[in-house]
Inverse folding.
């Protein structure tokens, strides 16, 4: 039979853990709401940009654009988006596993694969490997980016990555991140970033006879980098929303588990207390009995 | 005409306007009601929207504008 005091201590500690996990769940729920709002805010911009770009490239060959041109070489850059904080279930582990799988299966551990980490968790996993990005003018990690995420901060980074592609430091660039499906489901995905796939742009002809100012080529060349920046920003927003979703689910489960534990502990506490009382009565009765004889 | 000014972070303006002035990459462009369909790229500068009651100014770093059937969309940065 467990000792009364021991059980009481465990009940207090499980109770306070439960308070923490349920508070973290509330915080994540609020942050998830904000992250989802940011995605919704960006959607009209992204949609309009894509539709204009499709409109233009259906009548114009974009495959010779400097961002669309496939170059010879096998230097690959993987941009891995994780989070700065843990306690989010499998969120970080999944994206790191996905990256390792890609390095092993697609590239046979080739040292030509570089990894640029956004978020401390992925950085911790890759910083002591030969894959950590080096020998370029790109930063080694971008952990601060996640703390103040807005388009003005993201755009210069995207520009730097695009510049590294144009100067042929890398021949292919992929984004590895958790895609946000809903609050409970995150899917780790690998998305090609550069070179731009020009073939997907082919759609039906333009609905109106537009005037182009100054001309089509100029506008397309302006728009392609813009849409790349938007794609990069969208991946980051998606990952942040997925992070909060994952943390919310993980904390919800932790709270439920704590509740279960508390219930069984209460039962064993009551049993121990009842046993102690029964024991005491037995002793008193036994003592009285002894006095009577 | 219906005018929308959107950035990746938020919607800056949405509503009816009488006229719109944007910094086109080859000079300032003025847009009034019933403008022909147009797509133009924009450079850094000021977007001026005149509604029935007031005039609003927005600073942009660049972008693109689409005009189609009295609906104007400014994608700004």
């Amino acid at each position: 039979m467990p000792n009364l005091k021991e059980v009481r201590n465990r009940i207090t500690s499980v109770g306070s853990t439960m308070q923490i996990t349920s508070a973290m769940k509330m915080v994540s729920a609020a942050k998830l709401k904000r992250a989802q709002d940011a995605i919704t805010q960006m959607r009209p911009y992204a949609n309009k940009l894509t539709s204009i770009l499709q409109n233009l490239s259906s009548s114009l060959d974009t495959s010779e654009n400097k961002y669309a041109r496939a170059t010879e070489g096998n230097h690959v850059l993987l941009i891995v988006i994780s989070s700065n904080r843990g306690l989010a279930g499998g969120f970080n582990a999944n994206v790191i596993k996905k990256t390792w799988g890609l390095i092993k299966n697609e590239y046979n551990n080739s040292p030509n694969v570089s990894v640029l980490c956004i978020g401390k968790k992925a950085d911790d996993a890759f910083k002591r490997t030969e894959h950590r990005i080096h020998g370029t003018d790109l930063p080694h990690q971008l952990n601060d980016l996640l703390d103040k995420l807005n388009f003005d901060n993201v755009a210069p980074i995207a520009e730097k990555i695009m510049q590294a592609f144009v100067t042929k430091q890398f021949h292919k660039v992929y984004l590895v991140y958790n895609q946000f499906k809903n609050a409970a489901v995150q899917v780790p995905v690998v998305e090609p970033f550069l070179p731009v796939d020009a073939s997907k742009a082919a759609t039906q002809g333009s609905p109106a006879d537009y005037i182009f100012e100054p001309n089509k080529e100029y506008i397309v060349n302006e728009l392609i980098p813009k849409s790349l920046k938007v794609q990069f920003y969208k991946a980051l927003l998606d990952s942040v929303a997925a992070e909060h979703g994952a943390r919310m689910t993980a904390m919800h489960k932790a709270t439920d588990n704590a509740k279960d534990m508390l219930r069984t502990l209460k039962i064993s506490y009551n049993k121990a207390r009842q046993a102690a009382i029964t024991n005491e009565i037995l002793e008193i009765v036994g003592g009285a009995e002894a006095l009577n004889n | 005409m219906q005018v929308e000014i959107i950035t990746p972070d938020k919607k800056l303006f949405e509503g009816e306007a009488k006229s719109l002035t944007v910094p086109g990459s080859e000079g300032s462009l003025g847009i009034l009601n019933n403008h022909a369909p147009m797509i133009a790229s924009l450079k850094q500068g000021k977007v001026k929207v005149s509604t029935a009651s007031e005039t609003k100014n927005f600073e942009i770093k660049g972008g693109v504008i689409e005009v189609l059937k009295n609906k104007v969309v400014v994608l700004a940065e």
The first strand of chain A starts at residue 76 and ends at 81. The helical segments of chain A are 4-57, 91-107, 120-126, 151-166, 216-292. The interface with chain B takes residues 38, 41-42, 44-46, 48-49, 52, 55-56, 150-152, 155, 207-214, 218-219, 222-223, 226, 229-230, 233 of chain A (CB under 8 Å). Chain A has a mean pLDDT of 88.
